[in-house]
Specification:
By secondary structure, the protein is mainly α. About 45% of the residues lie in helices and about 5% in strands. The chain folds into 2 domains: about 230 residues, Alpha/alpha barrel (Glycosyltransferase), CATH 1.50.10; about 150 residues, Glycosyltransferase.
Length: about 425
């Protein structure tokens, strides 16, 4: 028995190493991590780069209100992306593709909880839970990524970034408003979803979990076979995993390890000179060709600048993220602050189509939160001066703009559940 115990201890130590200086252990009270961290989670201080750039609080608050009203209550045909359904539901429409995506629904919920908009949050959550949530045993507990506006399912598969943002938004909702009954018991819903995200392979014949059990990396699609054998760098959210490692009902060790491994993954995925990451990557960080965009820095990968910066703002445990943010912004600054394009190979070679994109302008501004090169202020000003997208392409551009606006103004915050 003693030999068996020793073997088990050694195996556990190999799977969940605790000696790395970057490793963040799950916490149940004050410990080493809370003494070492320098991010907002530990200090409560959220940088407001817009104020530091010289914009007044009145201007900033007016801009937030304007963008909220445009996205949620603007003109039906040219501005809004939020559409109420009946008395108690609503969806976020990807106008260009005329569909509803778990990505947009989860972004809408996060925006709503950050701005203390409970009605809109609950409407979106009820629509997602009514139409997107799977009840089929092989898929139960996951949300399909793509639906028509009438609620009909267009694709059974899930995109793990949607579930990732759902979980975190639900925890924040529990903290801000308290738990209700049924699907509005936000904490219970978050924990149930987390369990499926990690353990789905145990009950499904067709799906894997959303996190690769060996590397801990979030997968591209949790489907047995090729789609779960690589990842999307912009899906990685170590700052969310850190919260799960503290708040989740189970598997806290795994979420702490996932946070550490995602930070190390980003180091491998980012080009050492340009800072660009690909839309899709193998688990070793190398670009993964898939479809038309896999190996390129394009629409998915625009978000990597934001994700890296927010991890640094919230937890501040990896100074490489400052270097990375500087590297990324220097690349785009050399392209021309008012004329850089939106699609590249990760070595910086431009690729068609060549066009300016508000979404990328917003994500580069968000990256300025972790940068310390003075050129970051050029990106902040370019963001402030950029108009919202009107018409067909407003969904992705303007949602990313709103997320960046909240982050740059210090209004994208952690809300800690009391239970």
């Amino acid at each position: 028995m003693l030999i068996r115990f020793i073997v088990l201890v050694l195996i556990t130590a190999m799977v969940y190493p605790i000696s790395s200086p970057n490793y963040l252990e799950p916490v149940s009270g004050q410990n080493r991590l809370q003494q070492e961290g320098k991010g907002a989670f530990f200090t409560g201080n959220y940088p407001n780069l817009l104020a530091e750039a010289g914009y007044s609080e009145a201007e900033i608050n007016a801009r937030i209100e304007q963008v909220w009203n445009t996205l949620f209550y603007g003109d039906d045909q040219t501005e809004r992306v939020y559409y109420p359904v009946g008395d108690d539901m609503a969806y976020i429409l990807d106008v260009n593709n005329n569909d509803v995506r778990s990505e947009g629904m989860s972004y809408g919920m996060m925006i709503a909880v950050q701005l203390n908009k409970k009605e809109e949050f609950d409407r979106l959550w009820k629509w997602a839970r009514t139409y997107m949530y799977h009840t089929d045993p092989d898929y139960r507990g996951f949300f399909s990524w793509q639906h028509a506006a009438d609620g009909s399912r267009l694709d059974k598969n899930s995109a793990p970034d949607g579930e990732t943002w759902f979980v975190t938004a639900l925890f924040f909702a529990a903290a801000r408003w308290g738990n209700g009954e049924g699907i509005f018991n936000y904490t219970a819903e978050a924990n149930a979803l987390l369990h499926e995200m990690l353990h789905k392979a145990e009950t499904s014949k067709v799906l894997t979990g959303m996190f690769d059990p060996q590397t801990t990396h979030v997968v591209f699609v949790p489907q047995r076979g090729t789609l779960s054998s690589f990842t999307d760098p912009s899906y990685h959210a170590p700052h969310y995993y850190e919260l799960w490692a503290r708040w989740a009902a189970a598997d806290r060790d795994f979420w702490a390890r996932a946070a550490r491994e995602s930070r190390l993954f980003w180091r491998r995925a980012a080009h050492p000179e340009t800072g660009l990451m690909p839309n899709y990557a193998n688990f070793d960080g190398t670009p993964r060709p898939w479809g038309d965009y896999g190996e390129f820095f394009y629409a998915d990968a625009w978000r990597c600048g934001m994700m890296v910066a927010m991890d640094y703002v919230w937890f501040g445990v990896d100074d490489w993220q400052v270097e990375q943010s500087n590297r990324l912004l220097r690349f785009f600054h050399k392209q021309g602050i008012d004329r850089y394009n939106s699609k590249f190979r990760i070595d910086g070679t431009p690729v068609e189509p060549q066009h300016r994109a508000l979404g990328l302008i917003a994500m580069n501004a968000a990256a300025a939160l972790a940068a310390d090169d003075p050129i970051r202020w050029d990106f902040v000003r370019a963001f402030w001066e950029a108009p919202l997208t009107v018409g067909r392409y407003r969904y992705y551009d303007n949602l990313l703009y709103m997320l960046a606006l909240l982050q740059l103004s210090g209004n994208f915050r952690i809300y800690t559940p009391t239970t």
